[in-house]
Amino acid sequence: MESPAPTATTLGEEALAGFRERFGREPDGVWSAPGRVNLIGEHTDYNEGFVLPVAIDQRTWVAVGRTEDRVVRLVSTSSSASGETVIEHGLDDITPESVDGWSAYPLGTAWGVLQGAEGADLSAVGGFDAYFTSDVPLGAGLSSSAAIECALATALVDLWALDLSDDELLRATVQAENVIVGAPTGILDQSASLFSRAGHALFIDCRDSSREPIPFLATEAGLSLVVIDTRVKHAHAEGGYGDRRAACEEAARILGVPALRDVTAEALEAGRDRLDEVTYRRARHIVTEDERVQQTVALLRSEGPRSIGDLLLASHASMRDDFEISVPELDTAVEAAVSAGAIGARMTGGGFGGSAIALVDTDRVEMLTDAVRAAFAEADFKEPAIFVVAASDGARRESD
Ligand code: GLA
């Protein structure tokens, strides 16, 4: 099994050392924010439903220092396979058209925080230099973009002495993604990256964005949470994600409710003949997934993680058959994991590539890894990256 390298502590030190070397001075501090997996509750967030993510121990680190001008200077060692990315951009003229590729995430965040701070005391707002390091794999469905946004937003709110509530901070990071990056995503990823707690999953009601940490004691139950990165890249600013969102909104409109959150299984059946076959199945995924999230939370509370395997499997089947966002690599990962003894497995995140998760007895992790690798080789897929993750804390200041 691979352990993601380098380690988190090294990455924090690397961000600090990189900042010193690149900008020739001390930063004002170092901040970090995690990637996430979603335990269950997929595509329910923009339907104002329920989600249950877990922040992982892969994080993005950023050393930031204020400047006197209104210019943003960014350096990243993790944004591409080909070494360092260096960006320079005015703070006051960030638009969807002025950003490109990786820079959309940090620049969008600065823009989002400024929007969120409108009307507040802006006297401490100015340009900044930032140096990023990360071990959240890119394009793997583990929210590497939310980790960038949430680490930097947390830093800017501190440095600019802005009095933003948690919900305003969340909105700033989601707006970065929706408006500047141009991906029509919900609040799942940024909520997880900002507000998660170690040893817990985060139960979020996406209608009012209220959040509750739910103990997720996998290790104590003798279980490991394994990520299988299929290495099939996905991107939510492209086609499939937006199509699914549009189908859900259409179903809600036809059924006469504000969002699919408001539809029960009975109401969906009653309205079935008003929906075309595909739209019906899209809606059925959302309606049943919302139920599964609530059942998972109830089971985690009453019996612990060993009891949730069947719900994870049902969720995967629903995404594969009704929502149609899985790909052969994800199905193979889930099937091979289950055949190697996983108690549950499912694709996680937006779909069309990215990662699956599996919950498995810790003494079977090796067996699972071998089985998934063998199945991928057999099918002539790319070699997957497989690693165990731990439920971790959300965004935080790491040092002064
Ligand atoms: C992506 C989006 C989230 C959410 C998931 C699917 O990760 O960014 O808002 O919709 O897909 O659950």
List keywords for this structure.
globular, four-stranded antiparallel sheet, 2 domains, 400 residues, 12 strands, alpha+beta, eight-stranded mixed sheet, Alpha-Beta Plaits, Ribosomal Protein S5, domain 2
How would you sum up this structure in a few lines?
The protein is 40% helix and 24% strand. With 400 residues, the chain is of the alpha+beta class.
- What's the architecture of the largest domain in CATH terms? 2-Layer Sandwich
Backbone shape: globular
Rg on CA atoms, Å:
21 Å
Number of strands: 12
What does this entry look like structurally?
This protein folds into 2 domains: 8-34 and 55-202, 2-Layer Sandwich (Ribosomal Protein S5, domain 2); 219-389, Alpha-Beta Plaits, CATH 3.30.70.890. The model has no long low-confidence stretch (mean pLDDT 95). Strands 1, 2, 3, 4, 5, 6, 7 and 12 form an 8-stranded mixed β-sheet that branches. A 4-stranded antiparallel β-sheet has the order 9-10-8-11. 40% of the residues lie in helices and 24% in strands. The chain is globular and about 60 Å long. The two termini are 35 Å apart. It is α+β, with helices and mostly antiparallel strands and 400 residues long. Bound molecules: alpha-D-galactopyranose.
Question: Strands, helices and their partners?
Answer:
Blueprint: H1 8-23, E1 29-40, E2 50-66, E3 71-80, E4 83-90, H2 104-116, E5 128-134, H3 144-159, H4 166-181, H5 188-195, E6 200-205, E7 210-215, E8 223-229, H6 239-255, H7 265-270, H8 277-302, H9 309-321, H10 328-339, E9 344-348, E10 355-361, H11 365-379, E11 385-389, E12 396-399
Helix pairs in contact: 2-3, 2-4, 3-4, 3-5, 6-8, 8-9, 10-11
This protein binds alpha-D-galactopyranose.
